[in-house]
Each structure stands twice: as C-alpha cells, then as structure tokens.
Amino acid sequence: MPSRKFENGELVMGRWPGSNLYYEVKVMDYDTSTQLHTVKYKDGTELELREADMQKMNFFKSRRERSRSNSSSRRRSRSRSPGRTSRRSSSRTTRRSSSRGREARKEVKVQEVLEVTMSPLPKSVVNNINNPQKKKEVNDRAQRNIEHKTESELDSSRLDVRYNLRPRKEETAGKVMESEEPERKMENIVGNTHKYKVPKTTELEFGGKIGAFFMLSLLPATVLTLLLICGEKDASVLNFPPALPALTTLWDNHVFGIVVLWFLIQALIYVLPIGKVVDGLPLKNGKRLRYRINGFYAICLSAVLVGAAANHGIDLSYIHGHFLQFAVSAMAFSLILGIYLYIRSRWASEDELAPGGNSGNLIYDFFIGHELNPRIKNFDLKYFCELRPGLIGWVVINLAMMLAEMKLQKLEYPSLAMILVNSFQLLYVLDALWNEEAILTTMDIVHDGFGFMLAFGDLVWVPFTYSLQAFYLVNHPNEVSWPFAAAIITLNFIGYIVFRKANSQKNAFRRNPYDPKVAHLMTIPTATGKSLLVSGMWGFVRHPNYLGDIIMALAWSLPCGFSHILPYFYVIYFTCLLIHREARDEHQCLKKYGSAWDEYCRQVRYRIFPGVY
Known about the structure:
This protein is of the alpha+beta class. The chain is 54% helix and 8% strand. It has a 5-stranded antiparallel β-sheet with strand order 4-3-2-1-5. A 3-stranded antiparallel β-sheet has the order 6-11-12. The protein has a two-stranded antiparallel sheet with strand order 7-8.
C-alpha cells in the first residue's frame, strides 16, 4: 500500500478540477481504497482530489527561489571582468535595473495568483436568457465583476506555465482539448465507466445499528396496531394495546397467493414494450441506467383488469374482510424480498453498492439496503417497487373499502366522506404516475440502497397505512356537510397546486435552465457549476413540495371528522417523515454546495412552514 503524503488537518495547495489554478485547501480525510483525499476549500466546498493534484504549501515558493538563484548565477558567469570597460556599460546598468523592476512586478503577480481564494457570487443572479432587457438591468453588476475577473485571469495566464504540474509541451494540446471537454463529459455520462469503489459508510442514520435492529420489528408492529385499533368499534388510541387475534387467523395461503399474483401482474406490465425509455442520472462509476416510463399505462391496464374481475363476480370487498391477512402476507413477501436483496448484494461489484448502506454491519446494511440499483438484466427492482405494486395497490384497496362501506352500511352509493378520500388519493397517485420520470432524481433512487426498509415501505407501509382513512370510514361513517366539503376540496386544491408547481419548476430547471418557464427565476451559482433556485416557489420556502404534500395530507384526514385522532396518523407521520428527510437534504446540500448553500439559507429563511419552521 503506498504511503500517505498528506495528513488530516494539513493545509496544502490543491488544483481546482478542470483548471490549472491551485488554491489553499485543508485535508479532511483520505480513502485508502480509492487513494483520494477529501479536501475543503475556503468557501466550504468539499471535493476529492488525487495526490498528484496536491502540493505542499512551500512547493511554489521553493520553485521560484530556485529560478531566481539560477538566473543570478547565469548573470554572474556572463559578466565582464571588473577591470574592463565598455561603451555600453551605462546602458547595461539601465537594462539590469529595469530587469530587476520587471522581476519584482512578476513576483507581486505570482503572489496574487497563489493567494487567490474561492468565493461563489453571494448575490443571486437572474436566469433571464429570454428577456434581454431585464437581464441587462439585473446583471450589470455581475458583468462588471466578470470583466474585472477576466483582466486578472489574463495576467495569471502568463504565469500558468511556471505554476502548474503540466509539462510545457502539453500546454498547446491542453488548450485544444478544452473545447472538446463538454463532449467527452457527455460520453462519460452516457456509457463510459471507470473504476470506483464506494467508501465505507461512517454516518449511520435511523439510530445506527441498534436503531436498525429495532426498526425491523417496530415497523410491522406499528402497521398491525393501527389496523387492529381501526377495526374496533371504538377506534381510540386509548385502547392500546388492542386485543390480539389468534395467530392462526393472521395467515391465509389464498391471500398470500393473491399478493404474489398482484406483484407478478405488475411486473409483467412493467416489462411490456410500451412507454418511452429514458436515462437516469449519471452514477459515480460513470454508468447511466435506463428506465422504461410506463407507470400511467400500468394503472390504466390494472383498472381494466380489476373491472373485468368485478364484472366476473369477484367481490372486491373481500380485501376489507381479510385486511389483516393481506397486511401480514405483504410483510412476509417484503421480508423474503429483503433477504434476497441482501444475499445478491454480497456478490455485487464494489461500484454498485449504496453509499448509505456499506457499513459492514449485517443488520444495518440489510435494513438500509446494501446494493444501490439491484437489477435482473434490465428489470430494476427498486424502481419497479417504488411506484407499481404498492402505489397502485393503494388505489385498489381504497376502491375495496368504498364497496365494503356500501355493503356494510347498506348504502346505494358511497358517502361523501369516502368519495372525497378516494378522489383526493386517486389524484395523488395519478399525478405520481403521470410524472413518473421525476422520481429518477429523488433521494430514494439516487442515494438510498434497496433493502428491507424500502421494500417494506413500498409494499406494506404505503398501501396499508395510507389507506387508513378509507378503512376507518367503513366502520366509522362521518357525515360531511357540503360547505365543509367545499372547504376541504379548496384546501386539497391549494396543496396540490403548491406541490405540483414546485416540482414542475424544479424538474424544468434541471432539464433546461433556459426554459422560458423558469428563465426568469433568480438563481445562486455554486462552485460545482450548478445553480440554486432562489425565487418562485423555491424562494418561498426551501422545500415547497414538502409543504404541498403536508397540506394535502391534512385534507385527506379531515373527511373522517374529529372523533378520533387515528385517521390523522398519516398527516402526523408524514410531517415527521418530511422534517427528517429535509434534515438529510440540508446536510447533503451543505456538504455539496458549501457557502452557496449558506447564502441560499440566508435568503430563504424558512425550511417548510413559512414564518414557523
């Protein structure tokens, strides 16, 4: 193993990626597997650098001193004898003095180049390419800064040959290659790969190893408790713990077969050659996975199959009568899937592991997910489970609860409360499947591995806890007046507009920052080359999509009335979940964007709730 040249905490000079300029950085960490140093620049940006791109603080200084001493010796060897006279002696003296003056000016310029510090523009910039008049007014100051910067770069460019590690003969080739760099980057994104080893996970979430161990039993226990209390005549949380049924009544082979069949039907629809195929975000190993976008077709075909089953005499209210058995069967299936995922991950290559699930602890990695994107050929298991079996199954369960309410309450048509719950949640699911491509940029796909946590969440938690309001209304009907219904509809509409507009702005800006829909929005440039939206919905709060989600969650619970708090479990849980996820986002963004993120937080003070949090 090669010896380490730089120690943690040491101040060195690090080359900025893609340039020949060196800046003062602090060594934070060293990965022995990748042989990369994690360094921190003065603006807070953290990057990984090779040892070849780093030098000691006195490297350039000693190089200048050697150059100076060599020049002095050469001048002495070529000087005339003190006894000899020359007609040009006075002019030579003048040239020497002017030469020394030039050397002094060069030294000042060299010092300025070496002491330059990085600081992204603190002021927001209007991304206003399609409105030249506004762009001229707002960006006038930025233009003056760019002109001033250009002048200093022209001076420093004359010294680049002396103060970089690239041999002089490569300078001309390097200038030619700069124009080709965007094309080469694109090639790497599309298909070229490079060796990359995922580092060991040191920052553990969800309480670490002990927390993951308890979550394995806490999650299933929570689902069963909610369903048991909700199924009682008095659905009060004060009845905790609920009466436990006989264990033999919790399992039904027929029900388990239906769960497996539903999973296979959705898998079959997923592999059908319908819908477009898109590229996901580039991974750290250079790969860019491809995904088929046909979720909306999947729910349409599922609706046809469910309608055909009902037309052939299959009673969908059977789901309500065996709801506990369906939940237990889904738990068993998710456990089997989680075990399979962990076993196969032991043979996954090092560059395919999840950055958050590579701790080396069996329980923690099993819970979080050891492999980032487990695939069976082109069948992406994580992406499939994210929106298909559980999300579409949630709609089917809500439909079954509506039919069960009509059957048990002897109604000719569903109650207004049940219609509101079904309509709101159906809209939410249809929106997610219509905008399926947007999920490719979420933390679940980009960062989290696929293990028991996501498998249980997708196949159990979503369909059986998100449908809690509909399940509650079957045995606990609630009369909703039309004025109150109108208020609830308005609230859900506001939440949906905030949620959809925020996500649309984010996705449009990521695809094309010069899109007319987002070109007028203010942005903050970052050291990574990307920009942060600081106006529109994203100038209102830092996570407006979370705010819209929480408003809609409240609207889903209000039709159940105020007799019990149980129907409000979803909005309470979802608020806690999004606050926790927001904290994870803040940590990642601060680490990635440095001082630019601090400036964004200064301009957009509130995280989710304006004026509160």
